[in-house]
C-alpha cells in the first residue's frame, strides 16, 4: 500500500511538474436530476471485416491476416482482449459482405473465393463463407462471451440497372435463410442481423432505393420470426448500415413500418481519407469535431418521429476511410476523436457505437500483426467498465479544447466523467458542480467528492501523441506474462482538491458520492 501511495504521489508530482504547477481553473456543471439520453448496456462495439490480405490503399496493405476468413482464431491475445469486456459487442461485416455467399445447402451452385477483380465491387470478386469456418468463429465467440451482429448480403437476386450504381429487383433471401437456419440449429447466439452495407442514399459502390430496401427488411424480419419463434431469443434486425440522408431514412422507416427494424444503423467517417496530411490536425480541432454533431442530432430526431420503436446506432466508424491513417489512427492522439465520438453520440441517444475495427487496417483496436492492444483499446475498455447507460447533461465555460461527458456510473453509485484535454500546453484543474435543480436559481454545490474519488489518467509514452503505447496513471499498459490484459486500477485521490488534467491527456473520474437522482 505504501508503494502504491508513493507511485500516486510521484504521478501527481509529474503532472504538476509538466505544467510548472500552473493550470486553468474550470468548473464543470453536471445536471443530475434528470437524464438526457440512454445507451444500450453494451454501447461499445468493434467490427471484424471480410477484407483479404490483398486489400491495399495508398500503396500500403495494412490488413494482413486480419480478415474474418484468415484471422488466427487461436491467438491468445485476441481471445483475452475480447474476454476483458465480458461482453464485447462485435459486428461482422463490411464492404465485401454484399458479395459474400454462404456454403450451406444447394441454393448456391458455386462457392468463389475473394480475388482482385477490376470490375468487381470494391475491386474484388465474390467470395464465400465455409460452414466449418463459421463453426470456428462461433467457438471463439462462445469462449469469449461476445455479442454478435452479422451483416447479410443484400444484393443476391438483384441486378444492376442502367444507372451505374443503382441495383434493382427483389432480394433473394434463400441463401441467407439457409445460413440463418444452420446458425439457429447449431445453437449459435446472434444478437442481431443487419442487411447490406453502405447501400443507402447515394451508396458507395452500389445503392438501393429506400422503398425496396424497406421491403427487403420486412422479409428479413419475417425470416427471423420464423426461425426464432421464441420472442425472447429473437435476434434484432438492423439497417440500413450506410451514410445518413434524411429523406432516404425517412422513407425507409415509413415504408418498413412499426417494429420491422430494431436498430437504425449509420456509418461515420468524418475525418476524411486516411492519406489526408491534415488528419492529425482535424483530430485536435474541437470545432471540426463538432461539425458531425448535426448528423447525430438529425438521425435522433428522424428515428424519434418515424421509428420510435427503434434506436439509432453507429454501426461502423473508423474516423478516416480507406483503412485509416497509417501514422495516426492506431496511436494515442486518435483517442481525442474516438472517445469524443463516444461521448457525443451517447448524448444524442445513440444506443451502440461500433468501432472499425477490432483488428485490421490502420484503425484497429489491436495491432494487425502482433495483436497487442493499441491505446484506443484501453480507452474503450475503461468506458465499457465505468460508464453506465444513463447520460447526464454536462457543460462548462472553459476552453473548447476541454471536452467533458458524464454518465451514471456502471454498477457503482454516483457518476463517472470522461475528460479530454486536447491542449498541448495547458493543464486544467476541474471542479465538478452538481446542478441539483433544473429550474432557474437552482442550488449548486461543488462536489469533487466528500471523501475520495477514483481517477484514471491516460497519457502517451514520452509525451508523444503519436505513440502506440499508453500510460495509465503514469505506468505503461502492457500485457501480462500470460498475455492477459493488464489490471486497470484507479488512482485514489483526496477529493478536497480539483481534478488535475494534464495537457494531451484523457481522464476518467468516478465520484461515488455525487447525488444524482437520475442515477437512483
From TrEMBL:
This protein's membrane topology, according to the annotation, is: Peripheral membrane protein
Signal peptide span per the entry?
1-23
Q: Does the keyword Membrane apply?
A: yes
Query: Which cell locations does it reside in?
Result: Lysosome membrane; Secreted
Sorted UniProt keywords: Glycoprotein, Hydrolase, Lysosome, Membrane, Secreted, Signal
Q: Which InterPro entries match?
A: GH, Glyco_hydro_79
Q: Which GO terms describe its cellular component?
A: extracellular region; lysosomal membrane; plant-type cell wall
| A GO molecular-function annotation | beta-glucuronidase activity
Please tell me whether the keyword Membrane is annotated for this protein: yes
Known function: Endoglycosidase which is a cell surface and extracellular matrix-degrading enzyme. Cleaves heparan sulfate proteoglycans (HSPGs) into heparan sulfate side chains and core proteoglycans.
Instruction: Give the family from UniProt.
Output: Belongs to the glycosyl hydrolase 79 family.
Protein name per Swiss-Prot or TrEMBL = Heparanase-like protein 2
Amino acid at each position: 500500500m505504501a508503494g502504491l501511495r508513493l507511485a500516486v504521489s510521484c504521478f501527481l508530482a509529474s503532472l504538476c511538474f509538466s505544467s510548472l504547477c500552473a493550470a486553468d481553473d474550470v468548473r464543470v456543471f453536471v445536471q443530475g436530476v434528470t437524464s438526457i439520453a440512454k445507451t444500450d448496456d453494451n454501447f461499445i462495439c468493434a467490427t471484424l471485416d471480410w477484407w483479404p490480405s490483398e486489400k491495399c490503399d495508398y500503396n500500403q496493405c495494412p490488413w494482413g491476416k486480419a480478415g474474418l476468413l484468415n484471422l488466427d482464431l487461436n491467438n491468445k491475445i485476441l481471445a483475452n482482449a475480447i474476454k476483458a469486456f465480458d461482453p464485447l459487442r462485435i459486428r461482422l461485416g463490411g464492404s465485401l459482405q454484399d458479395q459474400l455467399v454462404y456454403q450451406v445447402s444447394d441454393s448456391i451452385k458455386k462457392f468463389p473465393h475473394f480475388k482482385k477483380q477490376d470490375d468487381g465491387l470494391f475491386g474484388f470478386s465474390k467470395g464465400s463463407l465455409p460452414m466449418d469456418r463459421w463453426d470456428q468463429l462461433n467457438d471463439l465467440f462462445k469462449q469469449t462471451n461476445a455479442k454478435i451482429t452479422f451483416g447479410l448480403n443484400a444484393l443476391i437476386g438483384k441486378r444492376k440497372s442502367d444507372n451505374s450504381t443503382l441495383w434493382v429487383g427483389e432480394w433473394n433471401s434463400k441463401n441467407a435463410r439457409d445460413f440463418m437456419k444452420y446458425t439457429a440449429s447449431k445453437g449459435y447466439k446472434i444478437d442481431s442481423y443487419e442487411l447490406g452495407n453502405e447501400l443507402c442514399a447515394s451508396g458507395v459502390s452500389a445503392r438501393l432505393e429506400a422503398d425496396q430496401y424497406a421491403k427487403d427488411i420486412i422479409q428479413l424480419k419475417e425470416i427471423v420470426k420464423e426461425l426464432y419463434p421464441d420472442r425472447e431469443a429473437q435476434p434484432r434486425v438492423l439497417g440500413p448500415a450506410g451514410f445518413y440522408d434524411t429523406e432516404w431514412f425517412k422513407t425507409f422507416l415509413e415504408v418498413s413500418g412499426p417494429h420491422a427494424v430494431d436498430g437504425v444503423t449509420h456509418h461515420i467517417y468524418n475525418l476524411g481519407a486516411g492519406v489526408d496530411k491534415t488528419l492529425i490536425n482535424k483530430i485536435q480541432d474541437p470545432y471540426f469535431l463538432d461539425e458531425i454533431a448535426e448528423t447525430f442530432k438529425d438521425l435522433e430526431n428522424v428515428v424519434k418521429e418515424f421509428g420510435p420503436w427503434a434506436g439509432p446506432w453507429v454501426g461502423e466508424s473508423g474516423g478516416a476511410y480507406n483503412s485509416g491513417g497509417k501514422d495516426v489512427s492506431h496511436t494515442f492522439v486518435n483517442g481525442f476523436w474516438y472517445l469524443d465520438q463516444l461521448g457525443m453520440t451517447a448524448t444524442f441517444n445513440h444506443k451502440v457505437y461500433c468501432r472499425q475495427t477490432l483488428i485490421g487496417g490502420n484503425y484497429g483496436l489491436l495491432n494487425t500483426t502482433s495483436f497487442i492492444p493499441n491505446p484506443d483499446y484501453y480507452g474503450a475498455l475503461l468506458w465499457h467498465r465505468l460508464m453506465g447507460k444513463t447520460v447526464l447533461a454536462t457543460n462548462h465555460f472553459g476552453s473548447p479544447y476541454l471536452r467533458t461527458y458524464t454518465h451514471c456510473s456502471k454498477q457503482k453509485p454516483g457518476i463517472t466523467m470522461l475528460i479530454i484535454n486536447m491542449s498541448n500546453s495547458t493543464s486544467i484543474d476541474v471542479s465538478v458542480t452538481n446542478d441539483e435543480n433544473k429550474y432557474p436559481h437552482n442550488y449548486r454545490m461543488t462536489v469533487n467528492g466528500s471523501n475520495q474519488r477514483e481517477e484514471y489518467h491516460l497519457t502517451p509514452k514520452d509525451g508523444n501523441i503519436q505513440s502506440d503505447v499508453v500510460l495509465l496513471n503514469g505506468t505503461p499498459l502492457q500485457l501480462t506474462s500470460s498475455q492477459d490484459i493488464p489490471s486497470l486500477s484507479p488512482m485514489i485521490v483526496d477529493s478536497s482538491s480539483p481534478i488535475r488534467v494534464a495537457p494531451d491527456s484523457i481522464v476518467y473520474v468516478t465520484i461515488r458520492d455525487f447525488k444524482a437522482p437520475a442515477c437512483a
